[in-house]
Design goal:
Length: 285
């Protein structure tokens, strides 16, 4: 089998490659942004045509949510056109494509958990482009779409790293308490994505670590586990101004995983503990 990964310099792409290598797979092509501009249709199709992968793990994305409101064309090119070109290339060589989407396709106004069949209604441009990307993926039968949320991994910036960095210079922090979701560890997610490909499943799934929390509760847990003495004050979204709007409810139902017999990811608290241990091995205190 031959594996193609976009976004290898990001958190998830990095861990997908690491997961494959740990399982003994070595026929992997994971171009960096320098090696391949996914918004260049000819370059994308040439590389896929020549390599002829069994599967494309499409982890690359424009993910700067606030910046996307100001750089809409750039965001559209990466998240929509890049996805279109990769999907067309996958179809040409008969490869499965695994597309990473987001909880931000929903507006966050629903009570309870979002099911895969619930109506989407993105409240920011980033979410809109990710949903448009989903639509291109759906035009090709041999696909998996995985919506994720609140991602953290060893290879990149994330909320945990931000909190730990702020703890070096702040004794008190204000953190939003009315946005609810699930932190997701890319190491856990990568293992499940590989299992999904090997199990030959198709379709749309929600995948996060188990359990739900607010960003405030997330921050409190990070400081507790890392033994940082930081006082966290809960504030409301309306009192924390950002350029892009965020959904308040990002709770995703994982029943679609149960339906195909896939084991859910561990509790988010367990994932955070393991991640902080991994950070310490990397020298982050």
């Amino acid at each position: 089998m031959k594996f193609f990964i976009t976004g290898v310099n990001g958190q998830l792409g990095y861990d997908v490659k690491r997961e494959l290598l740990e399982r003994g797979y070595t026929d992997i092509l994971a171009p960096t942004r320098v090696d391949l501009d996914i918004t260049n249709e000819d370059a994308v199709k040439k590389m896929i045509r020549e390599y002829r992968p069994s599967v494309i793990f499409h982890c690359a994305a424009y993910t700067a949510v606030d910046k996307a409101e100001e750089e809409q064309e750039k965001c559209y090119q990466v998240n929509v056109l890049g996805t279109k070109y990769l999907t067309e290339a996958a179809k040409e060589v008969g490869a499965k494509i695994i597309y990473i989407s987001t909880d931000y396709v929903f507006d966050g106004t629903k009570e309870g958990l979002y099911q895969i069949e619930d109506k989407v209604n993105p409240v920011n441009y980033y979410g809109k482009t990710k949903y448009l990307g989903e639509n291109f993926i759906r035009e090709y039968d041999n696909h998996i779409i995985v919506r994720i949320s609140w991602v953290f991994g060893i290879n990149g910036k994330n909320f945990i790293r931000t909190m730990l960095n702020l703890a070096e210079s702040h004794k008190e922090l204000n953190v939003v308490c009315d946005q609810i979701g699930s932190p997701t560890y890319t190491k856990d997610l990568a293992g499940l994505l590989v299992n999904m490909f090997l199990s030959n499943v198709k379709g749309l799934y929600h995948v996060t670590n188990e359990g739900y929390c607010s960003w405030y509760e997330f921050a409190e847990f990070i400081f507790k586990e890392s033994r940082k003495k930081v006082k966290v004050h809960p504030i409301l979204t309306k009192d924390y101004k950002t350029i892009a709007k965020r959904p308040l409810n990002s709770k995703l139902s994982k029943e679609s995983l149960d339906d195909i017999g896939m084991k859910r990811l561990p509790e988010w608290q367990d994932a955070v503990k393991r991640y902080i241990r991994e950070l310490k091995k990397e020298g982050v205190r």
